[in-house]
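Aminotransferase
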Amino acid sequence: MMTPAGADRPAAPRPRVRPDLDGLPLFRGRAAEGGMIGLDCNESPFAPPVAVSDAISAAAGELNRYPDNAAIDLTARLAERYGVSPANLTLGAGSVGLCVQLIQIACAAGDEVIIPWRSFEVYPAIARTAGAVVRRVPLTPEHTLDLPAMAAAISDRTRLVFVCSPNNPTGSAVSRAEVERFLGVVPSDVLVVLDEAYAEFTTGDADPLDGFGLVRDRLRQGRTNAVALRTFSKAYGLAGLRVGYCLSAVPVAELLGRVAVPYAVATLAQRAAVAALDCEEEVRGRCRHLVGERERVRTALLDAGWDVPVSGANFLWLPIGSAAESFAAHCRERRILVKAFPGEGVRVTVGADAENDALLAAAGQFAQVGAVDVVRSAPLG
Ligand SMILES: Cc1ncc(COP(=O)(O)O)c(C=O)c1O
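Structure:
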């Protein structure tokens, strides 16, 4: 590999960059590794539906042109799908792009962002990048968002609160009634972001959050401080194209547009997402299958003595504490990638049936090599 330019020269004064970014965690994400079973990124194991691949191929001849910056077709389709005006919708480069924009419009240096913890690992980094102060509110012992504690953590400096449901990495979902109670006590000038990246996998819940429905109902009542995020990355299997969407009040959508990176949602992403909406039945069937697999894997692990919280997402959380890294290494030796959170646990994506079988076999072998006691006695969370 080539040495980075200048690495062999004496140190010259560094450009003046922000000292408060020292120590900012680096998001590593997926590094493609051939021949591995990737259960570490909560992706769909299904290739996009044929109609989606066809739409991508058809758009390839137009790539000399910039994308439609307003994404008129996709926005109109989503507006129709959710019964809202296009003016209430913003598209982004993945829902993570929208998380960044939401922080940009709400927070100046020193303002506070409240997040549940542990939750989506990107939240603290993007908040700190904006100069905001991150307040982490621990999950309950059942690995669920502690909404009353999050409400109690709000101060005069709080500008934004992330509510991640189902929560990454624990899979726990909060109900609509719980979120309504929470919103009832949050000051109306604090932006609440309902991050529903995995909403399509919560089928069967008695009182599912459906943040899009909740935000729409609130907007009709003139209540504007809650927004909801969804993505084409998970249920729709388009993680490689980067397209997410946000439902908000019109002034919030307008501000999101102002801070957007120009042309952030590529033409291929827009066309693929429109085609994916045409295949919603197929997508729903795939989600049902993954939910079935999730329950099969969870039951098998529970039967084998593992602690596995209920999940409403396309992944399971194994709160194995100090055994997290050794279990991930054990899986890697068997060519399976899982996501370890050192000292806390391991997140395992629900993959294709055979991949899930491989994971169960690896978990069984881990128990046989004497680690099952570690698994059973590990501290929660
Ligand atoms: C909770 C949560 N929100 C948002 C995202 C971002 O998804 P994307 O940017 O692919 O839409 C993820 C991705 O893993 C996630 O887990």
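Residues 35-46+281-377 form a domain with the Aspartate Aminotransferase, domain 1 fold (CATH 3.90.1150.10).
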